Amino acid sequence: METPLKISFQGGDASESLSQLIGENVEALEKLYGRMTACQVAVHIPDKHHRSHQFSVGIHMALPGNIDINVDHAPQGDNHFADAQAAVHDAFRRAKRLLKDRAQKQRGHVKTLHERIERTVDQPPEATDV
After folding, report:
1. How far apart are CA 34 and CA 32, in angstroms?
2. CB under 8 Å to 75, separation ≥6 — which residues?
3. Quick one: CA torsion of 19, 25, 28, 30, rounded to 10 degrees?
4. CATH number of the CATH domain containing 31
């Protein structure tokens, strides 16, 4: 990466173990897609007074050619995200999927739709001579 990884913890204190886990996940993404130029990760720590005690993780990745990939998943009533490590793993799983999709598009390995066949309900498709 051209710029160092930036990690922010919003709503609480920084966690060394989460920072290490995030760093490991970013390294894995760099191995998958080595041309990442910048990465910022924001961990949203739930407020103790709020009903929902769920973590959320936002990831912003910058790629060459002014391409930005954002992962911002807000948990929806799933207690799975009450664990910070689970929220980090889920966010990076989504980031990996988006990077893979992006890499396939750049390589031209994307499925395209076949040419649309025009016909009406009243007419059967044209028969071909064999």
Report:
1. 6
2. 52, 54, 55, 56, 81, 87
3. -70
4. 3.30.160.100
Q: Does the pLDDT at position 118 exceed 70?
A: no
Q: Which residues contact 35 (CB under 8 A, 6 or more apart)?
A: 63, 64
Q: How far is residue 106 from each of residues 1, 65, 109, measured CA to CA in Å?
A: 19, 12, 8
Q: Which domain range does residue 25 map to?
A: 6-107
pLDDT at 42: 95
Structural domains in the chain (count): 1
Measured CA to CA, the distance from residue 117 to residue 114 in angstroms comes to 9
pLDDT digits (tens, 9 = 90+) for 50-101: 666 788 899 999 988 888 999 987 666 667 778 889 889 999 999 999 888 8
Residues 6+ apart with CB under 8 A from 71: 57, 58, 59, 91, 94, 95, 98
